[in-house]
Design a protein that fits this description.
Number of domains: 2
Radius of gyration: 15 Å
Largest sheet: 5 strands, mixed
Structural class: alpha+beta
Shape: globular
Helix content: 10-25%
Number of helices: 1
Order of helices and strands: EEEHEE
Distance between the termini: 43 Å
């Protein structure tokens, strides 16, 4: 894998989606809007161009968090579910009927913050 050269004003976009994680191949503007970041990530996942994340048409980042952090490799933008690892709680809980990943045990709904369980 080639080394990424960090350019001023640019950042790595790291995406967590459906229990998978990967970096967008191209760097993005560090001052990009939250909507731009979500749009770029969705397009990349739909096209299958994010190493580590399977291609899918059903991508919805509307309830995801955009975080800008410093890392050893330069600025990084994280696009992730509201909970850092995509779920809250333990395996003794029910599954939210809105969850994108139905096998993920949750305490609250990751999609809409509801308290509904199936």
């Amino acid at each position: 894998m080639p080394d990424i050269v960090i350019t001023d004003g640019m950042a790595t976009l790291n995406i967590t989606w459906a229990g998978q994680n990967g970096n967008l191949v191209d760097l993005v503007a560090i001052d990009a809007s939250e909507q731009q970041i979500k749009t770029w990530a969705a397009e990349a996942i739909r096209s299958g161009s994010v190493p580590g994340i399977s291609s899918t048409e059903a991508v919805d980042f509307s309830n995801f968090v955009v975080e800008r952090v410093a890392s050893a490799n330069g600025p990084t933008i994280l696009l992730r579910p509201k909970t850092p690892f995509g779920m809250i709680g333990d395996c003794s809980r029910s599954y939210c009927k809105h969850s994108i990943v139905y096998h993920a045990p949750v305490v609250g709904c990751l999609k809409c913050d509801c308290e509904e369980y199936q």
